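Hi R.,

Here are the chain sequences for the assembly we discussed:
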Amino acid sequence: MQDFSADTAERPESTAGTTTATTDTADGAPAVRVDTDALTLTVVVCAYTMDRWEVMSASLQSLRDQDRPPQQVVLVTDHNSELYQRAVEAFPDVEVVPSEGRPGLSGARNTGIERARGDVVAFLDDDAVAETGWTAELMAGYADPAVLGVGGGIEPYWEAGRPAWFPREFDWVVGCSYTGLPEHSAPIRNMIGANMSLRREAFDAVGGFSTDLGRTGTLPLGCEETELCIRVGRHYGDGVILYRPDAVVHHHVGAVRGTWRYFTSRCWREGQSKAAVSRMAGARAALSTERAYLRTAIPRALGRALRPGGGSPPLSTLLALTLGVLLTGLGYLTGTARLVTRRQVARQLVVALPLVAALVLWGSSIPATSARVGDLGGFGLAAAVPWSFWTSLGLLVLGFTLALHRPSRSPLWPAVYTVALLALQRATQALVYASPLYAWAWKHIDIIDRLSANGGHLDLSNRLAAMAPYDQWAGFFAGNTALVKLLGLRTALSYAAWAPFVSSLLLLVPLVLILGVFSRDRRLVWTAVWIFYLGNWVGQDYFSPQAFAFFLFLGVLALVLRNLARTAPLGRHGDADAAYPLGAAPRAQLPRRERLVWLLLLAPPVAAIAMAHQLTPVVLAVGLMMLLLTRRYRNWWLVALALVVPAAWDATSALAFFKLQLPAMERTFGDLLANSQAGYGTAPTGTGPVIVSWMDRGLSGIVALLAVVGVVRHPSLRRTALPLMLVAVAPMPLVVANSYGGEMIFRVFMFALPGLAFFAAAALRRRPEALLAEADAGTADPVRAASPRRPVAARLRRAVPEGRITGWRSHRPRPVPAAAVTLTVLGLLAAVFVPSYTGKDRIDYFPKPETELVDAMYAQAPPGSYIVAPDSNFPDAYSGYDHYAYWWLADDTTTPLSALLADPAGYIAKGMAWVGTTGHAYLLLSRGQQSDVTMQGLLPPGSYDRIAASVAASPSFRLILQNSDGKVYAYVPDAGTVNR
Amino acid sequence: MKAALSDLLSPYRLLLAGSGWLALLCVDRVADDAPLRVAAVLLFVLLCPGSAAVRALRPSRGGAAEGFLLVLMISLSALVVAATSLMLAGRFSGPHTLIVLAALTTVTALAPVGRAPADPG
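And here is the predicted structure of the full complex:
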């Protein structure tokens, strides 16, 4: 006999015999046919009881009588030594083996499969008798190499005669072919266990029958063959399972199986089995055939039963049909419910519990935090939040890591955790503070208030001085003014505090879409999302044109990367890169009309960006121009759109700005030192501010460093995610070009963050092993490109291996170490994020008394008044700004600081003197400015107190308002002159 | 012809076409910052102009997330562009902005849809 012991885990073509002709396959498509004579057959018969000895003997005899006898017959006795002994003696021509698996049909069949040597393994029940043409019919089905399994028809042999009421549609109850199955040779989803066969290599590929299902003794929890067939179908995407009704066996149906009792219990059990299969194989696959059966076979049967004069007694058959469907459905539902309660809920709970605990702890931390915000220190809110906040943050990181490392494809839990993170990060302040953070947010509200009051009259000249650009790029303010009017609000103050949370939440969709273009790996994408949010400490998420424009910027980028890709020739590693487990295949090119549609759809956002912000259109245009370097994203029309729209805006509405600013911009162009100098917190003073400033810089540093590691570690991603890298790098030269009020370096970091986060997340993942082909030899030779034993440096040198990469082999999953790495990195980032993001809240939060003081001052100050303060860091600073003139002492670079500090009161009075005796000038000293100039080091230490003392003692200033948060002085012109 | 007419008169399309005018009615009739007014205005401003544009142009690709992003981006952009343009033209007011958006939405919602070409290229 032929030796079948060699490994045959190849495609069917390689094991099959010679190709002989081309005809039609089972599904009608012409294909190669194979001579099936060369195929060998093993038949496995499983038995568990002596009670069926007679039938079993007949069953084995029917195999001997086959026109095409099988090469091997294996009889497996299922944990019954008496049966085994008797069978060994009685059937010397049969291989009798005891089951080595778990008791039950599946375990016995798996034992048979292990003993099988034939190319094809067929199963025959011990109570079934095959017709003489059975094996020949089965084997003929394998002529098509795509056929993986062939099942045949099963005719019931009723011991006590067929019950008159028993519907043929329910013959599956007794394990037989039923009405509803194809009447001619046709592909089906699954075979019936009593008469089925599969290529042996399929078992090698997907394993045997599941022992979690299957009958144990008489307990008829079946469906194991259904589950196996679904598994095989999944493994071989294009494989076919064929039903050949002419390969007939006769199934012995005992008297007990013809009873109502057996019928109902079997239906119930079948439903439960289906639930189990659904859980293992997915409901769609598990129930596809059943849905079709319910749609067609059952209604037909009902129609037949109801038709007058149709053979069988209609009433009882009708009852059987209805009862059968109901019980099976109920069984399915209870099976699903039971399985869900016991297993899935337990698994979901593991992920849900940290989230619930985190949210409860966070909620409980809010009142405690609110009570402490009145007097924040040098660490801002970070020092004021209680332990429950930190525990909550820790639980979120833990739960997110758990959710991410579960074998699930659903984005639900990572998304829910991300929203919870955003709430903790960016909604806490909205909840604990009575008013919006940041003097800048107040300024933006003041601008909307002005446009609201003056009927939307924009002033495109430079008359408003430092406030002029807000009218020249008014998009964000115009939109909000309209919204405030339409909603019937008094001011945007009511919703501005929630802007950090909302604007960050808006970024989630474009972010996930962008990352998804470059990675099919769910873990990589969501880890990158978290690194983005934990690394984005720069606080440009507040109520601002930048936050709005950044959302549109990321949105445009997402839509461009997803829909405007072009077909480009694959590089040397193109095929391998497309299959890289952490990467993604390049997006396909859309037809010309579709591309045009997307270009049209992108026009409104590009226009809105141009109208709303100075910097973002430049970054967008530069980014898209950088993409021209890649062939895949070379879109000249897109670049033209991104250039022409902002240029048109700059040449009309913002022309006055450029006329004024261009000479200054030319002067500072290329002054790297000046332009990269961060204006915000350049010289932090005091323990808190110094540590916080190290932390925020450290946070940027960690993210950037991780990104570099990611770039080095994954050469394949470096090639496929090149567009992302280019877009991240694109804004960096802007640091040289312009200082943007000392903010440029932070903005550039923010615009680069999506790309940085992607590669930083990749840094946490191991590189899959490359399978290399020798360049000259045609045979593929698996070579470990990144053997764990090889030192890191050598592995990195193999970044571009000499041989061609033919594929990838993922490392054996090690969920615990992988999760530990994610947990550590995200935990560290989260811990550093909180002080980085909220550490300056003493400067940025204005308690109510301070706002009241400022509003009282403006209520007194007549239009044309001169408002003077150490700096502009106080709420409502620009209330009614088109009516006032301002002087911020710390921002004034026209005279040296020493002049101010020598005689503060005299210096300030001199500066106010221009208002004359009829004009009004006010000096405001409040806690926000004190914190700002002191902690940021805007004035030398002690300066603020010196100014305050000097002014208090000077007759040039009269104290007109005072409360717990500050003082307002009115300038007294005459006194000043007398004093001098 | 009959199919085109039934498409034109589909409830979704008609609702979309009228959404802006319903929001305008709310702004006119409902008290300042009342929940109904806030809901009507936000629903219209954030979703409807974008939905109408997306419906009219029918980009072929993209899942639910991408569709939502597109709708939101176009709606917000339309609000910004409409309000800014009205300010530059010296005709700005809240209702004026809403009228412009409502008209735009009606036109795009009722515009005949260009069917996707049978053969790409």
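Chain B has a mean pLDDT of 86. Residues 64-89 of chain B form the longest helix (26 residues).

Let me know if anything looks off.

Best,
T.
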